[in-house]
Design brief:
Helix content: 25-40%
Number of strands: 22
Shape: elongated
Radius of gyration: 53 Å
Distance between the termini: 121 Å
Oligomer: single chain
Number of domains: 4
Keywords: Membrane, Transmembrane, Transmembrane helix
Structural class: alpha+beta
Number of helices: 5
Organism: Candidatus Niyogibacteria bacterium RIFCSPLOWO2_12_FULL_41_13
Strand content: 35-45%
Protein name: Baseplate protein J-like domain-containing protein
Length: about 400
């Protein structure tokens, strides 16, 4: 049987089925393309966000990170016993002089008794209101108080002539010391006026007279306590002991901290002593006042330190080495001449010399070391004995470029 292709049946299922597959395939292709592009976008976004987070963390860590370097400088201890000439502007060490003044007094009961006869004494002013001619009064001339007590001058005096101004007499005067005619407390008087009994019944009697300048006192007759030499010595010992402490406090406060405290190079000079009553005079108590001056020599710590460094290591090490225990050394003075301002300075003890580190220079070298390792930088510094580096935080091993983030701790 002849088959005619035109008469072939085509199954709709086949057509439809073919059509469905074709359509399905056509629909699926654009959907897969969009999904791939979305996936690539998400991957890029994840990478970008991750990079941003890493960048932010790195910036944050860099801003908060730092390096602590503990540095142990080179040091050497020497047992020294050196003597140096020192003076005010002369010698190996220059001295500075400090002067302090103090007034101090002490009182204590008198310790001795004695039967004494003391005449009161004091000062008067004798006036010439009589004429322009001077008047001489010989020693022992009497002056009588308003109470009738007689006092005498112990030396000759000459009262100048009075001045005549406008036809009136202007009295002249002179000062004199008088003593009571007799011993006894009854001659102790306050301010008073005096006449000259020797001129009585003469025209000069009213023209020459006197007035008190001071009280007249000290008169005594009988057994009484007196001031003795032993009282003076005891008071002086007390005062000098007290002055030692006062001047020690004054040097502590008055001598600047950059000077060595002058322990032995000092001298107390007594300017004035006032002892009352006088030795052998009556009194229930004795009082001594002393005005004094302390002269002390000081030495600049830096100057002595430089001298020790140069003496033991040479001039090239000046300002490169310090003495870390200068205050603990024994520094004393001998052969002190306060008048010339000279002495011998003796320095003894175990002296600790410590090499100095230029911190700014070391930081710059660490920051700009290029290909050098950190330990290679430290190896270039002979003044460094040991160095330990600590990164903060510990996992962040990037060395900072900011010198403020490099913390140098010098250990002594």
């Amino acid at each position: 049987m002849n088959q005619n292709p035109q008469n072939k049946k085509i199954r709709m299922d086949d057509i439809v089925g073919e059509s469905k597959e074709t359509i399905r395939a056509a629909e699926q292709k654009p959907a897969q393309k969009g999904k791939s592009e979305r996936k690539r976008f998400l991957n890029f976004k994840f990478i970008a966000v991750s990079a941003a987070i890493i960048f932010i963390l790195a910036v944050s860590l860099d801003s908060f990170s730092s390096v602590l370097i503990n540095v142990v400088p080179l040091e050497k201890t020497l047992e020294i016993e050196d003597s140096y000439k020192a003076g005010l502007g002369t010698g190996a060490v220059n001295l500075e002089k400090f002067v302090f003044q103090e007034k101090f007094s002490e009182i204590q009961p008198t310790s001795q008794t004695k039967n004494i006869q003391e005449k009161a004494n004091g000062k008067i002013i004798v006036y010439n209101g009589f004429s322009s001619e001077p008047q001489v009064f010989v020693a022992n001339t009497r002056f009588e108080s308003t109470g009738g007590k007689i006092y005498r001058i112990d030396k000759k005096i000459t009262v100048p002539g009075a001045k005549i101004i406008g036809g009136k007499i202007e009295p002249s005067s002179i000062e004199a010391v008088v003593f009571a005619d007799k011993a006894g407390e009854e001659y102790n008087i306050g301010p008073d006026q005096f006449t000259v009994p020797g001129l009585k019944d003469t025209p000069k009697y009213k023209g020459f007279y006197a007035k008190s300048k001071t009280e007249i006192k000290g008169g005594f007759s009988g057994t009484t306590k007196i001031a003795a030499k032993s009282d003076f010595d005891a008071l002086k010992e007390k005062i000098l002991s007290r002055l030692e402490k006062i001047f020690e406090e004054k040097t502590d406060k008055g001598v600047p901290a950059n000077f060595l405290k002058p322990i032995l190079a000092k001298k107390i000079t007594i300017i004035k002593e006032t002892f009352e009553p006088q030795i052998g005079k009556p009194g229930e108590s004795a009082r001594l006042e002393i005005e004094s001056e302390l002269g002390a020599f000081g030495v600049l710590k830096k100057e002595l330190e430089d001298l020790l460094v140069v003496s033991n290591f040479g001039k090239e090490f000046k300002n490169k080495i310090k003495v870390s225990n200068l205050d603990q050394l024994s520094v004393s003075a001998r052969n002190i001449n306060f008048e010339k301002g000279e002495l011998d300075l003796l320095v003894k003890g175990k002296t600790k010399f410590v090499w100095q580190i230029d911190q700014n220079k070391l930081k710059d070298e660490l920051i700009n070391r290029e290909d050098k390792k950190i330990e290679e930088v430290f190896a270039l510094h002979s003044e460094i004995k040991q160095a330990t580096v600590f990164f903060r935080p510990g996992f962040w091993r990037i060395f900072p470029k900011d010198s403020d983030k490099i913390i140098l701790k010098i250990e002594n």
